[in-house]
Amino acid sequence: MMEKLRSSSRTTEVDSVGRQILDAMKKGDWSADTHLSSLQVEISQRSLALNTAIKRDKSESELEENDSQRDADTRDVFYLNMGFLHHPDETIKQAAVAVQTVLDKYTLDIVRQSNAVQSSLTESLLNDLMATDIQPFVGTLPGLSVLISRLDASQDGVKASNLTYLASKANDENQATASEVKKELLNSINDKLVVYLRAMVQVDEAKYSDLHNTVAQIIETNNMNVKKRYNKAE
Fold first, then answer.
1. Nearest of 209, 196, 193, 199 to residue 47 by alpha carbon
2. Per-residue pLDDT tens digits for 121-170
3. What does the mean pLDDT of the chain come to?
4. Distance (Å, rounded) from C-alpha 128 to C-alpha 122?
5. Nearest 5°: CA angle at 119, between 157 and 152?
6. Are the CB atoms for 51 and 20 separated by under 8 Å?
7. Angstrom distances, CA of residue 76 to CA of 2, 22, 73, 145, 161
8. For position 106, what pLDDT does the model report?
9. Cα separations (Å) of 82 from 65, 92, 129, 178?
10. Cβ-Cβ contacts under 8 Å for 84 (sequence gap 6 or more)
11. Disulfide-capable partner of 208 in 58, 114, 165, 201 (CB 3.0 to 4.6 Å)?
């Protein structure tokens, strides 16, 4: 008997299975079977919604990762200069004092601001640190220019990922999470398509056997991979 798709499948796995099933259904003409035709439309819509949600969730995750990296790079700049303030070499110490006058305008509270505020403050901080009157002091402090360059790069990463996230968010009116849409697609596949094909292959094997067997193979392959993953984890 055809298996049902494991609910423990990853969101991306359910997305893949949905698209494979649609490809299989497109190979036949089901216009005379209104129930199967409507199921095809339903699975197509939910598969598209899931793919969109996955992209949105991924862009949000990437934004969070880039924001965390920017926080780390910001702290590195502040902490390195803080150490130089106590350096025994007077030239290095005085250079650090000069750089600290810039950092004191912002303080490490910058990393606790909202993304939009932090981005604005970070841009301003980077401009101040790259100003011609501060650059000689930055160049005097070993490694500081490298850390400032890293902060500049992570700031660019946040800006790029934020634009991607906002674009994906604006294009999806439902704002349903990928896990929510996954459940809907699982329902369409397991409680509707699988149940229907199990019955119809008994009624008209010649007509439904190819689709039944293909869908069964798609689901079985996925379930085997899921089972292997869980066995390996145990």
1. 193
2. 999 999 999 999 999 999 999 999 999 999 999 999 999 998 888 877 76
3. 91
4. 10
5. 50
6. no
7. 56, 50, 5, 11, 22
8. 95
9. 26, 12, 15, 44
10. 92, 93, 95, 96, 99, 141, 144
11. 201
